[in-house]
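Sanity check

After download, print the first record. It should look like this:
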Amino acid sequence: MIAHATETFQQVKRRANVMTIVAEAADHIGDDVSDDPVDADWVARFFTYAQDVSNEQLQDLWGRVLAGEVERPGFVSLRTLAMLRNMNKADSELLLKLAARVTVDSKYLPYGGCLSLAEQVLAQDAGFLQQNQLVVRWKVTEAKQALRLPPPGSAVLQYQTRIPGEGYQLTIEAESSMYQVNMYVVSPSVLPLLNILKVPTDAAYLDSVVKALNAENVFKAALVKPGTAG
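Expected structure tokens:
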């Protein structure tokens, strides 16, 4: 009798979770929806996972994911769903923090007001960031190539804002290719989540990146903000 009552409570709870997530999806879905149907296996996997999500913040995220897949079937992979399934509230907050600090082409610079070392380790463990660091490769002008000189140049990184078509531009210059800027790449499975969340860039973080790089005295970093001249 107790087992039956527990099972009934669990069923009711799961039904309520699914209804809440579907309602969240309805709130977030846009006007431009594809005519193509969402894959049946994807739908089955989604609701199998989603029925046990009861945290309100996570339910909002799951609703956004469902809306994104309805708008663009095939946009959210099963690998992304598997990642989402293992996320808790703290993970989702870390994802939002990371999303406010990545370039439009999904690079992350660990300078200034970046993630703490503990957060960076957690982001890698959760699969948000790839394990290996990359470096900014300096551009080389044709004149420099012809003269076979060291490749000084500049790296230009773009960051988004809430307004489409506007963004921040971070330029990093160095006098020699021996000076390298470390960065991480966002894992492919998390990219759909970043695109769905559309988190605006943390401007204070960019200001701190510029300050931190310039303090090393081997870089010249500058930030062009929306509405200002280059």
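If your output differs, re-run the checksum step. Summary of this record's structure: The two ends are 72 Å apart (CA to CA).
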